[in-house]
Design brief:
Layout lengths: L1 H10 L7 E8 L3 H12 L4 E4 L8 H4 L20 H5 L10 H14 L6 E2 L4 E7 L4 E6 L4 E9 L40 H13 L10 H4 L6 E3 L5 E3 L21 H12 L3 E2 L2 E2 L3 H7 L31 E3 L4 E3 L12 E2 L9
Bound molecules: flavin-adenine dinucleotide.
């Protein structure tokens, strides 16, 4: 036992000596890079630390397809150096993430910042000693730093919400988070939402007439969606989405039939199983049908465009909660609808 302990002790690498600096900057995003440069210009010994493997901050982490500025590039700039500012020109008014990341690399290169940035390293604690007026800072690599100044440039959005869905640990697909998008290209080819829904939901439930893309046979049975006119009468809108759609939209865009809709409802009543297989675990159904938003109750839902939709208050005066997927009646309604009954909106006007 003693010999074993001694071997382990011998293998353990010695803790790095405390690093003494004037200043530590947490983060190598736009703010951290500027602080590092500024403090160095003032002659201070300074290091920046970032959990990421390179500079960029927000623009390092958020590399999902389509990520781009929503400010005009000309205002998202460092203006302290004319040389730096004029040495770069943007190709677009609202450039995408790859170009923004390239710009941040350009800044780091031009100001020679990387030599004072410790990457892949997270600051785990920082304690200020009132007597010595110095910070003791530790990192996840076991390093301790003693510094007079600590400048936190951690950003507003560096801790993405990654654990928000009940049961997500048992999700069999590849979880993707916008703020932790992989550097390697993600192959989403052939994975349109309609195809995934077809194999994982519609087929097990026997829903043969539910689709994002209308077939000729379905088009001949297409029901009109009506809008109310000023006099209160209804007129057909002639609504037909482009087919096939550019994007299979989860929020709307599915064509279906009453029979298929009933099959979908039956799945909920049947604890997650359909005619040809199970699509939800019963444990998931239990979670989905319970109030998940605490005291935040369902109130009147105001219509946004009065000509298209009215204000909607379901079961006025009765308490209703939000489950993950449904509205839940908290108490029995005079119509006989029991407490715990579930409902959801989202269909176009269907008269059946
Ligand atoms: C998709 C997207 C688009 C945006 N578009 C715009 C825009 O157009 N205009 C605009 O003004 N703003 C925009 N923003 C806001 C953006 O966050 C800021 O503009 C700016 O980039 C923030 O810079 P920052 O340096 O303050 O923080 P960040 O860029 O968030 O950098 C913080 C860095 O600190 C690191 N860090 C945090 N904690 C630690 C720790 N304990 N140890 C080590 N490292 C740590 C993180 O890893 C991160 O790299 C956008 C944000 C997002 C997500």
């Amino acid at each position: 036992m003693m010999a074993e302990t001694a071997t382990v002790e011998a293998q353990r690498s010695p803790a790095p000596a405390t690093l003494t600096l004037d200043a530590v900057v947490t983060g190598a995003g736009v703010a951290g890079l500027y602080e590092l440069h500024l403090l160095r210009e003032q002659g201070l010994s300074v290091k920046a630390f970032d959990s990421a493997s390179d500079v960029g901050g927000t623009w390092y982490w958020n590399r999902y397809p389509g990520a781009r500025f929503d400010s005009e590039a000309c205002i998202y700039q460092y203006l302290f150096s004319e040389d730096l500012y004029k040495g770069w020109s943007w190709s677009e008014k609202f450039p995408g993430q790859p170009e923004i990341e390239r710009w941040m690399h350009y800044v780091a290169d031009r100001l020679d910042l990387r030599k004072d940035i410790v990457f892949n390293t997270t600051i785990t604690s920082a304690r200020f000693d009132e007597e010595t007026e110095r910070w003791t800072i530790t990192t996840d690599k076991g390093q301790t730093i003693d510094a007079q100044f600590l400048i936190t440039c951690c950003g507003m959005l560096p801790a993405p919400l990654t654990h928000v869905f009940p049961g997500q640990d048992s999700f069999e697909g590849q979880p993707l988070f916008t703020a932790k998008w992989p550097k390697e290209p993600v192959d989403l080819a052939g994975k349109r939402l309609g195809e995934v829904l077809k194999t994982r939901v519609f087929e097990p439930l026997g829903m043969e007439d539910t689709t994002f893309t209308l077939t000729g046979a379905l088009r001949s049975r297409l029901a009109d969606v009506n809008a109310s006119k000023a006099d209160g009468s209804l007129a057909p809108m002639g609504l037909e989405l482009p087919s096939p759609p550019e994007v299979d939209m989860g929020g709307h865009g599915l064509y279906s039939t009453v029979g298929d809709d009933m099959r979908f409802i039956r799945m909920w009543l049947n604890d997650g199983a359909g005619e040809h297989g199970r699509v939800l675990k019963s444990q998931t159904v239990r979670i989905a049908e319970k109030n998940q938003l605490g005291d935040l109750k369902v109130t009147m839902l105001p219509g946004v465009i009065p000509s298209l939709s009215n204000d909607a208050e379901f079961f006025p005066g009765l308490s209703k909660s939000w489950a993950l997927t449904f509205m839940v009646n908290d108490e029995q309604a005079p119509t006989g609808r029991p407490a715990g009954a579930l409902g959801w909106a989202g269909r176009a006007n269907l008269f059946y």
